[in-house]
Amino acid sequence: MQNLSDISVIKKILGEHGFTFSKSLGQNFLINPSVCPRMAEACGANEETGVLEIGAGIGVLTAELAKRAKKVVSVELDTRLIPVLAQTLEEFDNVEVLNADILKVDLNKLIEEYFSGMHVVVCANLPYYITSPVIMALLESRIPVDAVTVMVQKEAAARLCAPVGSRDAGAVTAAVNYYAKAQKLFDVSAGSFMPAPKVDSSVIRLNIRPEPPVEVSDEKFFFKVIKAAFGQRRKTASNSLSSGLGMSKDKVNDAIADAGFEPTVRAESLDMQGLAQLSESLLKRI
Questions:
Q1: Domain membership of residue 143 as a residue range
Q2: Which domain CATH number covers 38?
Q3: Pairwise CA distance, residues 43 & 130, whole Å
Q4: Would you say the pTM of this structure is higher than 0.85?
Q5: Residue 163 and residue 173: Cα distance in Å, rounded?
């Protein structure tokens, strides 16, 4: 197998295919030889597991997943990389590369078609610019997967893994926490990539919950409340919710009081149960 962590090998392969990096697609290929094996192990890939990978790049992580998993399906957006991957992954007969946009794919249909009868996990080195949309698409689709292991910007990892109710938490923290338990696994320096990004990264694992940690009457409204509550972080929840939900301050203040909170409460101080209570109280006033 070619050493896909060797810069000279990468440059040779990409040169043969006339490939140049795309800034708009956030392309940074891993060249640190220790990272992909760690990710492949951490995601839970084994001989009975199917792995959905998002963004294959030149196939460094894909190859490590293929060594361990029963089957790997990699969704790669960049058409220019398809012939590259055909070359770098030619020795693996358990890999399928789909040229598609993960945000436009029917994920449940994909899993049913390619991973029938298997436990499934997700593993990916996500471009920074689509981290939250991809993670939320995976979670909201409620695909039958055990865990989602992804590499993201270090700052994003800190927010995603922050306890809900802490100053580091945001709307995406609460939204992710509804579906999964997030844990940070390890950091990855900027020098581990080619070209090197301006920031470091972290690998996190989202362990899918069998049931949400709170009960809400209307999930769609609950997430609307979360988005509105954290929409203006410097303001009180009262101001943020009134603006974000288009409700009068009086109604919002009544809902906050009925939920058991002070009128000056801020969204960042509310845990999942608190957010759920507030959502239910607001829902009664719609």
A1: 7-208
A2: 3.40.50.150
A3: 20
A4: yes
A5: 8
